[in-house]
Write a structure and sequence with these properties.
CATH architecture of the largest domain: 3-Layer(aba) Sandwich
Shape: globular
CATH topology of the largest domain: Rossmann fold
Number of helices: 17
CATH class of the largest domain: Alpha Beta
Number of domains: 5
Number of strands: 23
Helix content: 25-40%
Structural class: alpha/beta
Radius of gyration: 26 Å
Low-confidence stretches: 442-458
Mean pLDDT: 83
Strand order of the largest sheet: 2-1-3-5-6-4
Length: 548
């Protein structure tokens, strides 16, 4: 097992699609890392106690209990722990899933009093759901399992004997990305349902939730808000303090996540303005605009009227559904393909390989981080900064080689900033700048050494600037006069400024200052215009529009 030291973070067996790091970056200014731990390595990791505070997820919520020195009453009653705090070498265990699920139920106005509740699943989260339902006065509670272990009932039995259930809570991974079409219960056969809850949060609406909506269930909600809520309550244990407005924090972060992760579909009559509104909305939200009619015409080779004339509305709708499904699947398919072809353990790191059978680390593994693939970010960052690739002069082209590249180092820095590890990236940036720009190689950077006498001057200056603009400040264009801003300020800094940015049809300054509560005060100033002032948690994204 490689070195796994962390201060704050989350451990689990598979964390490829976790949003926890993004949530915690919006809550507080600490370095929160995702660390996948195998079942074989789990005991050693816990025994070392080499962390300040961690969240624990599948499959270790119950396995962690024997290693704890103190367990809260709630966690003990449930038999599952998802938050562990190291207090002077003693491990304290809590269950914030309980508070998160309870908050989700109450927020959506769901009354469990004297109701029949079915809970799908047999793991730690199902035990949490049972405890929550009991605390809210549920009349009958049944847990479901495909294996019928520990006295649980089967899904078939649930439909036969408990078709009159009032509430369903799914705590299984059924329907979780990328297996989005899976559903364990036929809710259409349960006509009295008042609410369906699914702890799965990716996608926002699972197949179970979609079927519940189709069946007319009054309340059908996914687990994103529960995820955020439990993280907020976990952060309170991390920081040993209460948030002044925990409910407000939950709402703010949930809304931000939904804005980033969800697409928008515009439906309307012909000539109602869908394209005009769609393009304006895409620019405002920083999303790609797709006109399905145009895509259908491209794919079919006929105009929309000709398709209607030949195949009728049913034929057109079938083509429309096919194009929608194609675009919906593209992002996930690409991410899965990259991981399937290139993901794997190389040199003891959970990162990417150059080709099938490749056993040596290469500098290009930073590229997935740059384009937003964060599933293997922790292992990849450790590999980039490890002794196999990193030298005093920069990043080697390949483990065991003698050639390093300025360009590779600069791309690696962008990737490390992009996954929220500002402290580690800034330390490397400082060291690189001192050695390569202000040291022996002035007045020019030598991109490749000792590879002949090649000297490349065209790209390095631009790449170096992008570390500042895209890394430290997180500037990403969303339109001709607008951009997203995600400052990634190192913990030791109180402020940073970028002056005379000539972009987006303007000349402007950006200043970020850390306030007493840990939030950032961000000022965007232009000559002759009133400064725009924003306040945001570290790691949060704000939208800036440079309009008069």
């Amino acid at each position: 097992m490689g070195k796994m030291h962390m201060k704050y973070g989350c451990i689990g067996e598979k964390l490829g699609h976790s949003f926890s790091a993004e949530i915690h970056s919006k809550l507080a200014d600490y370095d929160y890392r995702l660390t996948e731990v195998s079942k074989e390595d789990f005991p050693e990791f816990i025994k070392k106690r080499d962390f300040t505070a961690i969240n624990v997820t599948i499959p270790y919520k119950q396995d962690v209990i024997p290693y704890l020195d103190f367990i809260s009453d709630t966690a003990r009653a449930i038999g599952a722990v998802n938050t562990v705090v190291n207090k002077e070498g003693k491990l304290f265990g809590y269950n914030t899933d309980f508070s998160g699920m309870k908050a989700l139920i109450l927020k959506n106005g769901i009354d469990l009093s004297c109701k029949k509740v079915l809970i799908a699943g047999s793991g730690g989260t199902s035990k949490t759901a049972f405890a929550v339902a009991k605390s809210l006065g549920a009349g009958e509670i049944y847990r479901l399992s495909r294996t019928k272990k520990d006295g649980l009932i089967s899904y078939d039995t649930a439909l036969e004997c408990h078709w009159d259930a009032d509430i369903i809570i799914n705590t299984t991974p059924a329907g979780m990305y990328p297996n989005v079409g899976v559903c364990s219960l036929d809710v259409a056969k349960m006509p009295g349902l008042e609410a369906v809850l699914d702890v799965v949060y990716n996608p926002d609406k699972t197949e179970l939730i979609l079927r519940a909506e189709e069946a007319g269930v009054p309340v059908a909600v996914g687990g994103l808000e529960m995820l955020v809520a439990q993280a907020v309550y976990a952060a309170e244990y991390f920081l040993s303090r209460k948030f002044d407005d925990a409910a407000g924090e939950i709402g703010r972060i949930t809304a931000a996540l939904r804005r980033d992760m969800l697409n928008v579909a515009l439906i309307g009559m012909p000539s109602s303005g869908k394209s005009t509104v769609g393009r304006a909305l895409a620019e405002k939200l920083g999303k790609k605009f797709i006109d399905l009619d145009e895509e259908i015409v491209k794919a079919d080779g006929r105009s929309i009227p000709d398709i209607f004339a030949a195949e009728g509305e049913d034929g057109f709708r079938a083509k429309e559904s096919a194009q929608t499904a194609r675009y919906a699947a593209q992002a996930g398919a690409l991410a899965r393909a990259i991981d399937a072809h290139f993901g794997g353990e190389v040199g003891g790191y959970d990162t990417y390989r150059y080709y099938a059978g490749n056993t040596l680390l290469r500098s290009w593994i930073c590229m997935p981080l740059i384009v937003g693939l964060k599933e293997r970010s922790e292992g990849t960052v450790r590999a980039l900064l490890g002794p196999e690739l990193m030298t005093d002069d920069g990043l080697l082209t390949q483990q065991g080689s003698s050639t390093f590249w300025d360009r590779s180092t600069l791309y690696a820095l962008r990737g490390i900033y992009n996954v929220g590890q500002a402290d580690r990236a800034t330390e490397l940036l400082h060291r690189y700048s001192q050695r390569r720009l202000l040291g022996d190689h002035v007045p020019y950077p030598i991109e490749a050494w000792p590879e002949g006498s090649q000297r490349h001057l065209s790209a390095e200056s631009g790449l170096y600037c992008r570390i500042i603009t895209e890394g430290l400040f997180g500037i990403r264009p969303t339109g001709l006069r607008s951009f997203d801003l995600t400052p990634s300020m190192p913990a030791a800094w109180d402020g940073m400024s970028l002056r005379h940015i000539r972009a987006f049809g303007s000349d402007f300054d950006i200043t970020a200052r850390r306030e007493a509560d840990g939030r950032l005060r961000i000022t965007v100033a232009r000559p002759g215009a009133k400064p725009k002032i924003y306040r945001a948690a570290p790691g949060a994204t704000i939208r800036v529009k440079l309009t008069d």
